[in-house]
Design brief:
By secondary structure, this protein is an alpha/beta fold. It is about 35% helix and about 20% strand. It is built from 10 helices and 12 strands. The radius of gyration is 19 Å and the shape is globular. The structure holds flavin mononucleotide.
Length: about 280
């Protein structure tokens, strides 16, 4: 029986749903599947597994920083088989390509690649009244994920080659936006701009929502953001008092958001109209 590790990160649940379906497909093909969730940068030796799957949402047309660190620090991949699955809203950029190339550099064999829409809780869109791929992953996308799990198992057992192509290059505007949200800028600049205003009542929801424990309280109960921020804005979106503000509200991001929204709507990427207030996103 093949031992499979599925390591994934999910902020809003879409990646988790797909991970569960892939695990189901692998399990029905007689594989022994372990799932782990990736939060912070941990070094992991995977030598006890035959197959390793990495799953992630797309953040800013690339993987989130915690996933990049996790993949970079993986040990023991020589002669292992790997697969990658990613979730995205409007455009995946080089998210999947980046992970697949890193895994290949570490000597693993690429067994397959799966991509699906996932509900897109990006603050820039939501605060402008649009939510992309709200209903994804759909029942159909989830059954494709399960089928992908079965395919991975049969490719491994029957030594079949993987067939999924790499994604096309990131369109220019999206590449530019990715540069604006690069890691050095996120660390040295944007992460320092998060603050809670006088409406904060210390409910601590933001602390609980932060996927990587980046928010703490000082002795006066004042919130402090450290520099490992993923810029997911889960804190800002979840605040029931709308008390959290950051660089992500800055006007420099407005042209990107406006472009992304109109470009994506023209490309008929599924979306719904929403309003967001006091930690709640509702359909209008
Ligand atoms: C901070 C942030 C950045 C995102 N950036 C992108 C992006 O560049 N391209 C894209 O297609 N989707 C993007 N998304 C959408 C997510 O990839 C998508 O919603 C995914 O399904 C979320 O997975 P989860 O529910 O497991 O957290 C972004 C979402 C967030 C929160």
């Amino acid at each position: 029986m093949e031992k499979v590790l599925i390591a994934s990160f999910s902020q809003n649940g879409s990646t988790r749903k797909v991970a569960d379906q892939i695990a189901l497909g692998l399990g029905s093909s007689n594989c022994d599947v372990t799932q782990m969730s990736i939060t912070e940068n941990k070094s992991l030796d995977v030598k006890e597994y035959d197959i390793i799957g990495i799953g992630t949402p797309t953040y800013f047309f690339r993987p989130p920083f915690n996933i990049m660190d996790f993949v970079t620090n993986l040990r023991g991949l020589e002669n292992k088989s790997t697969f990658v699955f990613i979730l995205h809203g409007t455009n995946q950029g080089n998210c999947g390509n980046w992970i697949r190339k890193e895994l290949n550099k570490k000597g693993s064999k690429d067994l397959g690649y799966f991509r699906s829409y996932g509900a897109d809780y990006w603050i820039g869109y939501i605060k402008r009244g649009t939510m992309f791929s709200h209903s994804s992953p759909t029942t159909q996308e989830l059954s494709s994920a399960e089928a992908f799990g079965r395919t991975i198992a049969s490719r491994y057992k029957d030594k079949l080659p993987q067939v999924e192509e790499f994604d096309p290059p990131t369109p220019f505007m999206y590449g530019l936006e990715r540069m604006f949200v690069s890691r050095p800028l996120a660390k040295m600049m944007y992460s320092k701009t998060f603050r809670a205003d006088k409406n904060c009542d210390n409910c601590r929801i933001c602390i609980k929502k932060c996927p990587i424990g980046n928010i703490s309280e000082n002795t006066n109960g004042k919130l402090k953001w450290q520099s490992k921020c993923l810029l997911c804005a889960a804190c800002e979106l979840s605040c029931p008092k709308d008390a959290i503000h950051s660089a992500l509200d800055w006007v420099i991001f407005a042209p990107f958001m406006t472009y992304n929204i109109s470009h994506s709507k023209n490309k008929k990427i599924p979306f719904v109209n929403v309003t967001h207030r006091k930690g709640k996103t509702v359909l209008t």
